[in-house]
Specification:
With 442 residues, the protein is of the alpha/beta class. The chain has 2 domains: 236 residues, TIM Barrel; 77 residues, uronate isomerase, domain 2, chain A. The chain has 18 helices and 12 strands. The strands form 3 sheets. A 7-stranded parallel beta sheet has the order 4-5-6-7-8-11-12, sandwiched between helices. Strands 2-1-3 form a 3-stranded mixed beta sheet. Helix 3 packs across helix 5 and helix 15 packs parallel to helix 16. The radius of gyration is 23 Å and the shape is globular. The protein binds D-fructuronic acid (FIX) and zinc ion. The site of zinc ion (ZN) has 3 residues, from loops. D-fructuronic acid binds next to loops.
């Protein structure tokens, strides 16, 4: 079906889609709508608004290639279900040794049908590599011949990702050293200022701030300390050109409360976000280190109370809040909150919710209650190549859900142009986010 064809709703002669720029008279049966929506969703470039990737100038911080794909913490958690060796023995292996074990247990001894395993195969297949020979050494040779800078471009092209937002933490020593060397910015890579230690472990963070020359005292969250915290936030926001300030939160997080985080948020973070006109992104529901033996793979999820979000949105109507929540149980309440507060923008299916059955459920829920005024997905990729699978797997679901929704409109006699479908898809993949971030009058 060409662009600009006209779509008829099966035998419903009054219900049709009207595609713009077209050979206007071609009548297309409704079943073709599906293919068109899939194509538009597949073609439309996305802004990936939360990842753990870095621009190539950050050197070893940018992870990519087969071994990093295999030792992704999602797969580490899965392989321990099959291993009988002590955890420490696994950790004492080299990255390749760990990857060998993961390949053996999750790909050879069992079919790789979990979402994270399937993702590795999607990546390899879309890069044109042979997966059927199951030859890990051959895969390694191919990856070792790639040049990281060119490979970034290739992955972004294959994944049709236009921009990638990094997670940048001043509290990460390795990353700080790179910022200190004033890396030339790659315009495709945006920044998010990550401040978990500041809000969740104030005493330790305070010592670090003091060491960096800020006149802060951990015992007193007084005017001077809070204004120095604001100076710290301002310095880093300018330095990294942060698009937003970001924190992940434990299930028991409350606001307001008598925890240090409350004063820090109320008297430093929120005034800072207001002054710089940038959102505060909150990611609630993660229970860190449920099993510390698994290291990065050991975090879990617990139901969380979103009252803090209602309090933030209603108490600070002139601050914008971004949110992605980890528990499945929070998703309905969250979307209803977004209907009540225009300073709240929901984004992505985070981590344990980034699996097809929940992406499908959450996307329907969000579209049915919010239309296109949310951000459909973010990749949360830690390994560059993952953007290929995370976006492809999600796009298939978005296309399916959208196509069903449009079909319902057509059956009601609504007419719709291809340009309108493209507009909706753009909005769901970064357009609504940009509008939200630059919305005047908040
Ligand atoms: O807090 C976060 O940003 C999480 O996404 C990570 O901590 C987590 O480890 C992850 O990679 C999830 O996808
Ligand atoms: Zn993340």
């Amino acid at each position: 079906m060409g662009f600009g064809s006209r779509v008829l709703a099966g035998n419903e002669s009054t219900a049709f889609l009207w595609f713009a720029h077209m050979t206007a008279t071609t009548l297309i049966p409704l079943p073709d709508l599906d293919a068109l929506v899939h194509r538009i969703v597949a073609e439309t470039e996305v802004d990936d608004i939360h990842t753990h990737l870095y621009q190539p100038a950050f050197g070893p911080l940018l992870l990519w290639g087969i071994d990093d794909l295999l030792v992704y913490h999602y797969l580490v958690a899965e392989v321990f279900r099959h291993l009988t060796i002590p955890h420490e023995t696994f950790w004492s292996l080299t990255k390749q040794g760990q990857a060998n074990l993961i390949w053996h247990h999750l790909f050879l001894e069992n079919s790789p049908i979990s979402e994270s395993c399937r993702g590795v195969l999607t990546v390899l297949n879309r890069l044109g590599l042979d997966v059927k020979s199951r030859d890990l050494s051959a895969l390694r040779s191919w990856f070792s011949a790639q040049n990281p800078a060119e490979y970034v471009t290739r992955c972004m092209q294959v994944a049709r990702v236009r921009s990638i937002c990094m997670t940048n933490s001043p509290f990460d020593q390795e990353e700080r050293m790179i910022w200190d060397s004033n890396p030339v910015r790659d315009p495709r890579f945006k920044s998010g200022l990550r401040i978990d230690p500041l809000l969740l472990s104030w005493e330790t963070a305070c010592k670090e701030l003091a060491g960096w020359g800020y006149r802060v005292r951990s015992t007193e969250l007084n005017e001077q300390t809070l204004s120095e915290v604001r100076r710290f936030l301002a310095d880093w926001t300018r330095r990294i050109q942060a698009a937003y300030v970001m924190v992940s939160l434990p299930p028991e997080f409350r606001f307001p409360s008598d925890h240090d985080s409350s004063a820090l948020i109320e008297r430093a973070v929120l005034p800072h976000c207001k002054e710089f006109g940038i959102p505060f992104a909150v990611m609630p529901g993660v229970r860190r280190a449920v099993n510390p033996l698994l290291r990065l793979a050991g975090d879990g999820v617990s139901a969380c109370d979103l009252t803090f979000l209602r309090n933030l949105c209603s108490g600070w109507p002139d601050v914008r809040f971004l949110i992605t929540a980890l528990p499945r149980e929070s998703q309905h309440e969250l979307v209803v909150l977004a209907r009540k507060f225009r300073n709240l923008h929901v984004f992505g299916c985070w981590w344990f919710t980034n699996i097809p059955c929940l992406i499908d459920e959450m996307t329907r829920l969000r579209i049915e209650l919010l239309g296109t005024s949310f951000t459909f997905q973010h990749s949360d990729a830690r390994v560059l190549d993952q953007i290929i699978y995370k976006w492809e797997h999600s796009r298939v679901i978005l296309a399916r859900v959208l196509s069903e929704k449009y079909r319902g409109l057509v059956l009601n006699g609504w007419q719709l142009t291809e340009a309108e479908v493209r507009r909706d898809v753009v909005n769901l993949n970064g357009g609504s986010f940009s509008k939200f971030c630059s919305q005047p009058g908040l």
